[in-house]
Amino acid sequence: MALSFKPVKPLLYTGTNASSRWFSYIGLGIGVLLLLCSVQMFINIQQLLKEGSIRKDGFDFVSITKNITNETMGQPEKNLFHADEIDAVKKQPFIAGVSPLLANDFRVQLSAGNVLPFSTDMFLEALDNDFIDTLPPNFTWKEGDQNIPIILSSDFFEIYNIFAPGQGLPQLSKETAMGIPVQIACYGRDNTITFSGRIVAFSDRVNSVLVPKNFLQWANKNFGNKDRQDASRLFLKLKDVNDPKLIRYLDAQHYVINRDKTLLGRNKIVLQGIFSGLGIFGLLVVILALMLFSFYLQLVIARSRQNLELLLTLGYSPAWLGKHVSGQFVPVYILIVLTALICTQVMQWAFHQFIMFNRPELSSLVNWIVILLAAALVLMAIVTNARLVKKLLYRLG
Amino acid sequence: MKLEIRNVLPTYFEETRKADSGIWGKDLVFSNGDLINIVAPSGTGKTSLVHFLYNLRTDYTGEIRYDGTPLKNMNREALAALRKDHVSIVLQDMRLFGEQTLRENLEIKRQLHPYYPAERIQEMARILGVDHRLNALARHCSYGEQQRAVIIRALLQPFEVLLMDEPFSHLDQANSQKAIDLILEEAANRKALVLFAELEKAAGFHATHLYHL
To answer: Which residues of A touch B (CB under 8 A)?
Structure first.
């Protein structure tokens, strides 16, 4: 016959001081709910802000410049990235790759020839090919070629279409623009060469007029005034543009990044801070509730002291008694944490449904980490109480 | 089971007590079948001795061993096992759960090790004349009734050593004799050692060893 706890149960004065027991139950429930909700919201923020930037192969690409201030303007050596600075940026763990944007070191004039009465001084830049989002196969150049392929920023093209009517120029579609040959005049120290250029692609990522890197290197050598090594812009390949560590690093170095690309990241820092704070507060409430509950248990054992002592005198094992006394509260713990988990689930569903309008990045179900945390909390409550009761019973003798 | 009492003295007694006592400060060894009668007036440490032997108190010098294992070295679980299966006790202050009936009190002990079926409770209660009170709350029973319930409780478990501290202090001559007969019969069935501490030498208890504290 297995030893039954049923006849022993009435000997425990568990009914006494119900208010302190209910306070600890409610406290535990609120604490667990706060903790679970905070963790879920933390995960939601991570998932939401992982999106929202132009990505290629799972990476974000942004360009950074130095912050040009009144003190540094007019001093290129202070506003350019030197080799050692580029190396330092490369070493950061949250930066997957760095490519300096090579700029023209000579005067360039762009015109549409006879097709459009349009002519402008322009700049050219070159970038490593694997940093370019829209790379057509014909984006190549070799020495002697008259034709230069160009990748134009979509933003620049949009700006052209905005000012074109005011200048008496036609607005163009992307397809037409790609068909129009442009003339690129490169002014050297004592020579001028005009190349024929053609837009081969538009880039959403790079705000520039890109030409093949080997062309610009060749042109800088032939038309340039000096052998310039430093870059004014760095193009970064990032695992996550919203990584708070990246933003803190760039701020510390006084580097400027396209603001709207990191706005989400900045919000993320604030939101994560708020929910971390809430989570810590929830954890504190959980600890407080568990402490309150341990006081309640101590009270139960103190009130039942005589009966428990007699049970031990009769030959009841303290381990068995401890297991069953603390086991009384296991269903309560499970119920409390389960209720908090259900509330978190309802909150997550409502958040996804009514606030986020079913955004695909989010799920209506709570994250598995939250479920794991709930299970860990139940386990923690059970283990701490079992240990406490056992200790108290051993003290009884 | 071998019970050894080696040079035991309560820490609150003077050393001089050892000289006149048959127990304090002596080396004694008992084994199965021994019937030990310890006779002593009040205040000489009968209850202390029984409590030491059951490890309810440990404020003594010297050593008490069961089958060679010092009692003070046993952990809580080993002690619980010793009390459950090997050493039984009748305490002078009875110690029953007042809010439970006599039968519930006895069942709580019996379920620890169901050495006897539940019917045996009824049978022993009938022999000792408390069967009609089995369903009464312990706190509503007289000391005499409680004392008989405590004796039955001690006899419900298997034991090799039975410790008794003034077990009949609230019983009349006739009821005491019935209880002694039942205890001796149960002890004989188990070939157990019985240590019986009393104010005076009990008439019906034929001790194999007699000591004065």
So the answer is: 1, 3-4, 7-8, 10-11, 307, 310-319, 394, 397
